Amino acid sequence: MEYIDNSFEAVIGLEVHTQLLTATKMFCSCPNVFGKEPNSLVCPVCLALPGSLPVINFNAVKLAVKAALAINLNINKKSLFARKNYFYPDLPKGYQISQFQDPVSSNGYLIINIGEGKEKKIRINRLHIEEDAGKLIHAGYNSFVDLNRAGTPLAEIVSEPDLNSPAEAVAYLKELRDILVYLDISDGNMEEGSFRCDANISVRKKGDAKLGTRTEVKNVNSFKFVEKALEYEINRQIELLLNGGKVIQETLLFNSKTGKTESMRGKEEAHDYRYFEEPDLSPLILGEEFIAEIKNSITELPRAKRERYIREYALSEYDSEELTRNKEIAYYFEDLIKANKDRVEIKKIANWVINDLLFELKTVRLDQELGLDQRTTLDQSADNFEIKHGGMIPVKIEDFLELILEVEAGNINKNTGKKVLDEMLSTGKKAGDIIKEKNLIQVSDEKGLEDTIKQVFEENPNELEALIDGKDKLFGFFVGEAMKKTKGKANPKKVNEILNKHIENYKSGIRINQEQGQS
Ligand code: ADP
Ligand code: MG
Ligand code: ZN
């Protein structure tokens, strides 16, 4: 990463808040769901009515411990809840129940990829349990309070300042989110705020041991914005220092319209929050057995999957990454491999999933969800599109495999195969039926293709002459014309062979004629 002065380096530590996928809130039995009518999911506990008492959500503790174990944290058998006191209209109690001195877990790490096949270990200070605040909705001169979110279970994951560039920060967030989504701990949805991040940033001269003064950018809600906000903030701090100024420790907001960070408030210190132990909750005591049971429930994580795909399936790093980015895709792919029973090369199946299935799913879904009338390409959509897990792949394993086998058997060509897949996705029909119905069987018979090609030659005499004269680029034109004549059904390999044979014949025929003419 290039900064305005590369004798500086960036130091970044991230505080990630992730909502836990529980049925109910952290300390009451209100449903934990997004997008309902404001203030419809509230009760005396989350409204902080006098006399109401919190009760710890057992499932939230389970999910938090699961997350902690997945990122290599030590589970503390005894942890405490604490009150973090501050005033804000979305916080009815006037304090947030969190954990401070004795969090549920501490001292872990996450391995991230930092490009060129290199890995980096990022230490994690702690993961603790807390509750979310409500939400303010601003409209003109009015502000409204929605307390549906108040009391939603959160895990806060605090990294050590081991990240040294915006790209590393994004890699860390992606790795972390992948894990949480894989394990059904979080839905990872940044737009809905169920996975959010505060970024702490400082800069220092390369080689300096001492950390610089940091600023904290609050609640950045997409990977792209994290990268932009960090980039801007790093350069702002370097410039400030170069001009003899000093970085002030403060809390900033990222303005996505201007691409700049803006001062929000001076940084509060821990003592400003007057933390003290939550008197309404007893300490959280976790048994060995409970922890072991959760540990055993952790399935293969994306990084391990990627490595196994490379090792066992001989796939490239790129392919493995594409296939494991989404849990549903990964399991779908693995089921395909099982059902395939070595009939088709694994690499080919991987290509079908990555280049065709994923592509179709992304474009089709974008069309439907965003009402786009034109197909958006994968490149354009990759940033703001993620296939959510939970039954998004509408093609059964055996149906998709049938399609692949039809192509492998040469019954249809690959291009037709793509069209059939498109049709399968939109109608739910099976490959075999679509092929029959639309009469898509590949034309491979020599005689028929010979006739087609002769016809094409006759219709394009000038192009044919030019091709014989050595304008080799026109070869593709004739392939295309032959495909058109067969409505895309011709076996492209056969078309190539026949064309080649004729052109060679023409060429040598002409040479013979010329030689004859000269003699
Ligand atoms: P607080 O809770 O007050 O924000 P913490 O000490 O818990 O403060 O640190 C919060 C985050 O800030 C952590 O992720 C930590 O790695 C990061 N951090 C601390 N000091 C620096 C620094 N000088 N530069 C960059 N990040 C830092
Ligand atoms: Mg902080
Ligand atoms: Zn409630």
TrEMBL record:
Domain Asn/Gln amidotransferase: 331-503
Gene3D superfamilies: 1.10.10.410, GatB domain, N-terminal subdomain (1.10.150.380)
Top-level taxon: Bacteria
Gene: gatB
EC class: ligase
Organism: Candidatus Acididesulfobacter diazotrophicus
GO biological process: glutaminyl-tRNAGln biosynthesis via transamidation; translation
Family named by the database record: Belongs to the GatB/GatE family. GatB subfamily.
Protein name, entry field: Aspartyl/glutamyl-tRNA(Asn/Gln) amidotransferase subunit B
GO molecular function: asparaginyl-tRNA synthase (glutamine-hydrolyzing) activity; ATP binding; glutaminyl-tRNA synthase (glutamine-hydrolyzing) activity; transferase activity
HAMAP family: GatB (MF_00121)
Reactions catalysed according to its record: L-aspartyl-tRNA(Asn) + L-glutamine + ATP + H2O = L-asparaginyl-tRNA(Asn) + L-glutamate + ADP + phosphate + 2 H(+); L-glutamyl-tRNA(Gln) + L-glutamine + ATP + H2O = L-glutaminyl-tRNA(Gln) + L-glutamate + ADP + phosphate + H(+)
SMART domains xrefs: GatB_Yqey
EC number from the UniProt entry: 6.3.5.-
Entry keyword Transferase: yes
Quaternary structure annotation from Swiss-Prot or TrEMBL: Heterotrimer of A, B and C subunits.
Keywords per UniProt: ATP-binding, Ligase, Nucleotide-binding, Protein biosynthesis, Transferase
Role this protein plays: Allows the formation of correctly charged Asn-tRNA(Asn) or Gln-tRNA(Gln) through the transamidation of misacylated Asp-tRNA(Asn) or Glu-tRNA(Gln) in organisms which lack either or both of asparaginyl-tRNA or glutaminyl-tRNA synthetases. The reaction takes place in the presence of glutamine and ATP through an activated phospho-Asp-tRNA(Asn) or phospho-Glu-tRNA(Gln).
